[in-house]
Amino acid sequence: MNIHFIKHWLKNPAAVGAIAPSSPYLARAMAQPADQFDTIIELGAGTGVITDALIERNPSARLIAFELDPALAGKLAARHPGIEVVAGRFHECAQILDSLPERALIVSALPFRSLPKEVIRPTTVILARFLMQNVARSLVQFTYQPRTPFDVPTSLTWRWRRVIWRNTPPAGVWELRQG
Ligand SMILES: C[S@@+](CC[C@H](N)C(=O)[O-])C[C@H]1O[C@@H](n2cnc3c(N)ncnc32)[C@H](O)[C@@H]1O
Fold first, then answer.
1. Nearest residue (CA) to ligand 1, atom 13
2. How many other C-beta atoms can be found within 10 angstroms of the C-beta atom of residue 142?
3. Has residue 92 got a pLDDT over 80?
4. How far is it, in rounded angstroms, from Cα 59 to Cα 158?
5. Is the peptide bond before 24 cis (omega within 30 degrees of 0)?
6. Whose CA is nearest to atom 2 of ligand 1?
7. Does the CB atom of residue 69 touch ligand 1 within 6 A?
8. How close is the Cα of 39 to the center of ligand 1, in Å?
9. Is residue 134 within 8 Å of residue 73, measured between CB atoms?
10. pLDDT digits (tens, 9 = 90+) for 128-171
11. Which residues pair with 134 in a beta bridge?
């Protein structure tokens, strides 16, 4: 297992919210819609397994990756100089969303079931507002539990897409958008 993942998990298990990085199968499933979007926002990039899949799926898209841990964020930026990496809590540095085009994809690996309430609330408010601004926006999220990842206003709908068994533990992939 990746040593950077282990170090980060030891420092902050609730922020990591996983016992292992996503498998390549889960990463590819999360990246599947990426070729339909020119602007992609990744949340909780970690060691970059989903980042790699996003770049492979759509190398010409603008990719903005948020990661809480500054060491992991620095490594990701060094490995992928062509993407924008933002280090810190997403909800505290999300201003960049205001300048993004109408059509955009959010790919989230944030562990909503283990993050503290004071992080979940502002994060989900920002995400819901972003999606409600335009019908051409979509969010993809994985979760290890058999229920929707977080509560949303009634104008947004969660759709279950698939389960990835070849992941530890198996993960469900969900999509959130208007309608
Ligand atoms: C479940 S891990 C996913 C890592 C990687 N994307 C993967 O799939 O293996 C969650 C990641 O989200 C990051 N994270 C947690 N809270 C965050 C926040 N509020 N803003 C940005 N990143 C956050 C953690 O540091 C961790 O790297």
1. 44
2. 25
3. yes
4. 27
5. no
6. 16
7. yes
8. 20
9. no
10. 999 999 999 999 999 998 899 999 999 999 999 999 999 999 99
11. none
Taking the C-alpha atoms of residue 29 and residue 155, their distance in angstroms, rounded to an integer, is 25
121 vs 88: CA distance, rounded Å: 16
3-state SS assignment for residue 62: strand
pLDDT for 142 equals 97
Select from 171, 92, 98, 93 the least CA-distant residue to 134.
98
Condensed to tens digits (0 to 9), the pLDDT of residues 100-124 reads 999 999 999 999 989 999 999 999 9
Give helix then strand counts, H and E, for the chain: 6, 7
* Structural tokens at position 40: 């992609």
Which residue has its alpha carbon closest to ligand 1 atom 10? 16
Domains and CATH numbers, the chain: 3-178 (3.40.50.150)
Order of strands across the sheet that contains 62-67: 84-87, 62-67, 39-43, 105-108, 138-143, 171-178, 156-164
Q: How many CB atoms lie within 10 A of CB 156?
A: 16
Sign of torsion, CA 89 82 10 107? Answer: positive
What are the tokens at 102? 């109408």
